[in-house]
Amino acid sequence: MTETVGWMASPSALKLDYLKHHAIGSTALDIGCGRGWYASALADAGFRVTGMDQTKRVDDERIHVIEGEIQAPLPFDDASFDTVLMFDILEHLGEEAAILDEVARVCRQRLILSVPHADAGPLPQYGLTYLHYIDDTHCREYLPNALGDLLTGHGFQTVSLQLEGQPTIPLAFSEFVRGGAVVRQWVRYAITALYKIGLIYNDHIAGDIFYVGDRTPSV
User: Fold this and answer.
1) Bridge partners, 214 (sequence order)
2) Backbone angles phi, psi at 51, to 5 degrees
3) What pLDDT is attached to residue 200?
4) What is the pLDDT of residue 122?
5) I need a surface site. Which of 12, 144, 173, 206 has the fewest CB within 10 A?
6) How far apart are CA 61 and CA 63, in angstroms?
7) What is the per-residue pLDDT for 63?
8) Burial category of 74 from C-beta neighbours within 10 Å (exposed 0-12, middle 13-18, buried 19 and up)
9) Residue-level pLDDT at 174
10) pLDDT number for residue 205
């Protein structure tokens, strides 16, 4: 997965996998669609896709893009989309509650969302942090249970709520070892072996929360 602070250099394989396994129906809205990688993936799967973003950067003619600020009210009828997608966008929006109310209104069934994880675990005591902590466009980060409760309060039932990280991150510590390339390579081998047998875990470096939820049926 190749991503950088503030923009993405290429599509995330993890996010594409979430779409493959969780997007449902025939219509989709991608809020904060960026360059349109995920909207295009949905179009490839047969969805009719609408994207929203501040600036239009989507070259795929299959995607109907609405350019402008992402704010309430959203310019769609109730239950317009079977799947609503929000990758790395909610943390940038000031009117969180108003936007989520609108998302619930236009979403017929499925919400797929990712946000930055607020808990850096033991990383700060070693002078480390998540990349998203230095993104000054973020209004907030999230904790998993709080995110689930937030979305429940806005009309969604949790289908999946997962911390996601990159298990290769501990390999970076080999770069701080003295002794040259050969020694660093052996340290990488050792870290990989310890990870594979479960003696190294990466829960505390899972930098993102991925949420999948369905609209709560109206009573």
Assistant:
1) 110, 157
2) -115, 150
3) 73
4) 60
5) 173
6) 5
7) 97
8) buried
9) 79
10) 65
Nearest to 209 by CA among 171, 155, 158, 134: 158
Distance CA 85, CA 78 (A): 16
Please give the Cα distance from 117 to 41 (Å, whole number). Answer: 25
CB proximity list for 9: less than 8 A, separation 6 or greater: 2, 3
List the beta bridge partners of residue 160.
212
Copy the structure tokens of residue 175. 């770069």
pLDDT computed for residue 7 by the predictor: 45
Name the CATH superfamily housing domain 13-165+206-215.
Answer: Vaccinia Virus protein VP39 (3.40.50.150)
- Average pLDDT per block of 10 residues along the chain, 219 residues long: 47 93 98 96 98 93 94 96 97 93 98 86 60 66 93 98 69 79 88 81 74 86
Q: How many residues comprise the chain?
A: 219
Domain boundaries, the chain: 13-165+206-215, 167-201
Helix, strand, or coil (residue 208): strand
Q: Find, among 17, 77, 67, the residue nearest to 45 by Cα.
A: 17
Comparing CA positions, the residue from 80, 58, 54, 50 lying closest to residue 68 is: 54
Residue that the structure tokens 């875990």 belong to: 201
